[in-house]
Amino acid sequence: MTPYLDIQNLTKRFGARVLFEDISFSIAEGQKVGLIAQNGTGKSTLMSILTGHEGYESGSIIWRNDLRIGFLEQSPKFDPEESVLDACFNHQGNEEKVLRAKQILTQLHITDLQQPMGQLSGGQQKRVALANALLNDPDFLLLDEPTNHLDLEMIVWLEGYLSRSNLTLLMVTHDRYFLDHVCNIILELADNRIYSYRGNYTYYLDKRQERIDNQRAEIARANNLYRTELEWMRRMPQARGHKARYREDAFYELEAKAKQRIEDRQMRLKASNVYIGSKIFECQYVSKKFEDNGQEKVILDNFYYNFARFEKMGIVGNNGTGKSTFVKMLLGLTPSDSGKFDIGETVRFGYFSQEGLKFDENEKVIDVITDIADYIDLGGGRKMTASQFLNYFMIPPEEQHNYVYKLSGGERRKLYLCTVLMRNPNFLVLDEPTNDLDIQTLQVLEEYLQDFPGCVIIISHDRYFMDKVVDHLLVFEGNGVIKDFPGNYTQYREWKSLKSKEEETAQQNKVANTKVAKKKDYHHDDRRRMSYKEKREYEQLEKEIKALEKEKACIEEALSSGTLSVDEITEKSKRLPLVNDELDEKEMRWLELDELDH
After folding, report:
1. pLDDT tens-digit series, residues 24-68
2. How many domains does the chain contain in total?
3. Which of 193, 219, 289, 437 is the most buried (most CB within 10 A)?
4. Would you say 314 and 460 are in contact if contact means Cβ atoms under 8 Å apart?
5. What's the CATH number where 70 sits?
6. How is 467-479 classified by DSSP, letter by letter?
7. Parallel, antiparallel, or unpaired: how do β-strands 427-431 and 349-352 relate?
């Protein structure tokens, strides 16, 4: 395979802190690579280096000549006054480029191309940025957290597009289903090194565990030998011969290996002192609507729901359907138009919002937590100190005395999460908690929520996370329509897919029955018979209609497949309305002839 990118001995430091040292890897044509690492270890920095936005200390980065490269930033920035179309590129009146942009934006559900970027939600802005990355039909695509701020429908679309396309890809994401379905190589950045696994995320998990088990065995052997060599070092005089000096040098290498640490988090944090009464909350016929760009937008329409004790609910739906507004009304942060939320007296909310917490930049990480509490009471006489709690959520002791301004975006989100949990609430309301968190922290949070003895509401686009934690869904379909589904997200998708197939079959049967009914109602006496020429036309029309229907289905399938180039999208989008018009015309003529006695 042709190498598109070759990285050799790359080193990056921030002051005395080493992010990665002498890392080497290459990406060949057609490979789809996922990069995994803990927050703060340099994932986004590496992406910035590859795009030329940031420098590095040493090493080499070699791109193949004449590659078209697309890049999606983690948090794209736009001029708020600029229109959607102008934000994509400076098209300078080029009709072909304008048409390309319209086709891609339409697939991403962005239809008002003259709307100012400042009026778009975070999810809509991320879609415009994604269109920008795809617009020039790149050979190599760099994606930094592509699923952040996208709704589930868009994530599924992007997953299908990338998995079916021939693009070469390097992406940073915490979405484990996305990694599983798209990537064929996983790179793990850990211990300032790169580990490569030739498979998807599930394969990576198995092989990573094998690597860690082997490392543990090596460290155990080194420790056994280290005790023997340490005794020799203490016994031997300082003046040593050449052979002894060689053994001394080997001792220090052995010592370094023996003192290696491998993260091994056996404990699960199970709190037993959280109490919540039998009455949680009752949403009593609540309605909410507001104006959005001059149009009335309905969020809730006389909605009733009685929340059960210990319930773990997920809320899903497209961006803009009112998920965050719903939880803000529950928390009393946004008023309802009518109806009310009747909340139990024992309920203590812990709220993790999308906006996050404003920190004092010059405060130390540990002080942010101890300002809330010095320890958390786990019940049964067990306590966990603030430092132990941070360590449990992957903020180790050496980083706890850093100042907040030194933290990466993911580390700040992690710290914010700890401030919510440290208050020991009995009802957690988490609005997009997975954004910017690394996979290891997500696994910790999943276990925490599975064992949590209170109530939980989660708004999230992370399907893997939702499947692990929630047992019930509220599906916001828009315009005040909310469906209650007893199951997790994957079960909901399977049910929805089955329902769609059943509805499609029912519609086909309805059309067939209508045609049969028409023939039964046919009055021979009142209609003339078809001429020989009309019979031939009728037979030919049936063949032509069948061929046009097949062509239409093929075009629609291709347009939704995500595998087409921009030129192919343009060509098929021009052809589709012509096929529809021709099909309508021939079906109308077929019906006219069908009315005749044949």
Report:
1. 999 999 999 999 998 888 888 999 999 998 999 999 999 999 899
2. 4
3. 437
4. yes
5. 3.40.50.300
6. HHH-SEEEEEEET
7. parallel
